[in-house]
Amino acid sequence: MRFAIGGIVNETNTFATGPVGLDAFLQLRGEACLAYARTNHSLGGAIDGCRDLGIEPVPTLYADAFASGLPSRTAFTTLLDELAGRIADAGPLDGVVLTLHGAMAADGHPDAESTIARRVRAVVGPDVPIAVTLDFHANIGQPMVDAVEIVTTYDTYPHRDEAERAREAAALLARTARGEIRPTAALAKPPMLPVPQGQHTEVSPFRDLIAAAHAMERRDALTVTVAGGFPYADVPVAGAGFLVITDGEPERARSLADALARQAWTSREAMRVRNTPVEQAVAEAIAYPDGSVILVDVGDNIGGGTPGDGTALLAELLRQRARRAVMVIADRAAVADAARAGVGGIVESMVGGKTDAWHGEPVPIQGRVGAISDGRWVHEGPEWAGVPVDMGTTAVVQVDGVTLVLTEKPTAPGDLQQLKSLGIEPAAQQIIVVKAAVRWRGGYGPIAKRAIHVDTPGLGSADLMRFPFRHVRRPIWPLDPETAWAPPSIPGS
Ligand SMILES: [Zn+2]
To answer: Are residues 216 and 321 in the same domain?
Structure first.
């Protein structure tokens, strides 16, 4: 058998500066996609899953802008036309595995995954089964579900099982292609918009939801999706979703999906988070007797599409004279300033706060340039183990007690190699700032003595009341605290 593989990936923060163009997307064409084999990545899992089953993976186009502002209409349609064209030209196919995110919006396409799935369906016709792999933060749309046979979604946040879930998708797609199973899906979307920080799957309530989903998979379902959703995509389809796929039992799929939705709805208040004010967080981190203390810069959560140049914590670390603190900021102009000063030189610059008005003011710094690097490293994992990353030219500048890492491109933290590759030993730091919500736990969790989630300003803030929502469905919790929802009753109970 032959399965086409490919996809278009973006987690779209519609509040962030946009539109972003084609150049925001990593683009792998044809055989270049196969470089992701044997990585802990969805595309890698799709390749390996096919090969393990004796199926030929036929690479098409894989385009990935990670997380950003809204992709432009031109960028999206150009990529979708190419993906569809390459699938059409791939020769006889027995299936298609699409690597998608689930929380992508594009200009003119607020539910981009539904647009992609329907287009691919139109290309391959009704008889070639399609599987989709999604991120845990997917905002799942019914049109996408209707257009495909199989959907698998990470069960973990931080994401540890990307490849595993894609292998599951390939295996279920193979059984579908052979006529062994007849997948039928039901999607439940209670009116709730939890923030990423409340979706950590290693603690309640999402740990319990995942456990319930796994119990369903052992007894009744082919695969079960618990998707926390992505609230910073201001689109009608935003919010948590629960998707159950059974083998030819639509009523059972419906009752199981509704049961998960009911469990999520009744535990929603436990998904609220309250974060520490900036000044207090820095004071507590400095006073903590035994680092490393992780200061989580929730407002500038790069994995949630923020610019990575938020300065609230840098300004406060310098003001309170923190020692052995490290912080990464994306600022192309400041990198250039450091490069001009050269290694060993003194650089003066205004750092960060340049992309928009949400992430603080530029901070004046003066410091010694400790290193300049090409910013390339390979993830040690767990998330994306084996996947290379390019931060652009990167400078390490010592500003008083703060080791400031300046990168050209925003790079989501979560992997110790980001610092180790620059000669910075994470475990030797008193304070490490991570611009994240939960993803940081993958790499930094094992070395963290304490974590303080900081109420920094920015487009990843856990306080959704700060955002000018216009397109999400209303009422929705927590924007409308009095939202009522009548969970469907359990038949027979
Ligand atoms: Zn995610």
So the answer is: no
For residue 287, the CA-to-ligand 1 centroid distance in Å is 33
What is the pTM (predicted TM-score) of this model?
0.95
Alpha carbon 470 to its chain centroid, in Å, reads 23
Same domain, 213 and 357: no
How close is the Cα of 376 to the center of ligand 1, in Å?
22
Residue 487 pLDDT greater than 90, yes or no:
no
Looking at residue 3, what is its pLDDT?
98
Please check the confidence at residue 378 and state whether its pLDDT lies above 80.
yes
Ligand 1 midpoint to CA 25 (Å) = 17
Q: Are residues 97 and 205 in the same domain?
A: yes
CA 440 – ligand 1 centroid, Å = 12
Please report whether residue 483 resides in a domain: no
Q: How far is the CA of 41 from the centre of ligand 1 (A)?
A: 12
Last residue of a domain, one of 271, 294, 312: 271
CB-proximal residues (5 Å) to ion ligand 1: 135-137
460 CA from centroid of ligand 1 (Å): 13
Residue 242 lies in domain? 2-271
Residues in the chain, total: 493
- Residue ending a domain, choose from 227, 243, 271: 271
**Distance from Cα 315 to the centre of ligand 1, integer Å:** 29
List of residues 6+ apart from 61 with CB closer than 8 A: 6, 7, 8, 27, 28, 29, 33, 79, 82, 83, 86
Q: Is the pLDDT of residue 301 over 90?
A: yes
Residue 173: CATH number of its domain:
3.40.50.2300
> In the beta sheet, which residues pair with residue 349?
365
